[in-house]
Amino acid sequence: QVQLKESGGGLVQAGGSLRLSCEASGRTPNTYVIGWFRQAPGKEREFVSAISSFSGKTEYADSVKGRFTTSRDNPRNTTFLQMSSLKPEDTAIYYCALRTGLVLATRNGLYDSWGQGTQVTVSS
Q1: Residues 70-79: contacts with CB within 8 Å, 24+ apart?
Q2: pLDDT tens digits, one per residue of 49-84
Q3: Strands 78-83 and 58-60
Q4: Can you give the pLDDT at residue 75?
Q5: Distance CA 61, CA 39 (A)
Q6: What is the pLDDT of residue 74?
């Protein structure tokens, strides 16, 4: 069983930065993908980014490309999401999720384990 824990959320001004962390514990697969998703009130959960623990390959949603960067500290089973040039539209609960295997995925249903989320609020 794998457990995921997000941290690093908070309140920032537009144009500011935050770094989110996702720590995995328990038995992780040899190869896996960590995805980041976000959900604002009244809206569907949407894909933000994904990274492979094996290859380091990444994928980003168009809405965050060039502003967000996801990276890995594999020995510590930790994944980061560095968010810069934040906009009020980025306000949401951010979740990390794990998918077994090599292939990056953007759909919620393709991930096996989820954290409980961390709130990010960007004020104007």
Answers
A1: 70/34, 70/36, 72/34, 76/23, 77/23, 77/24, 77/25, 77/28, 78/21, 78/22, 78/23, 78/24, 79/21, 79/22, 79/24, 79/34, 79/51
A2: 999 999 999 999 999 999 999 999 988 899 999 999
A3: unpaired
A4: 87
A5: 14
A6: 84
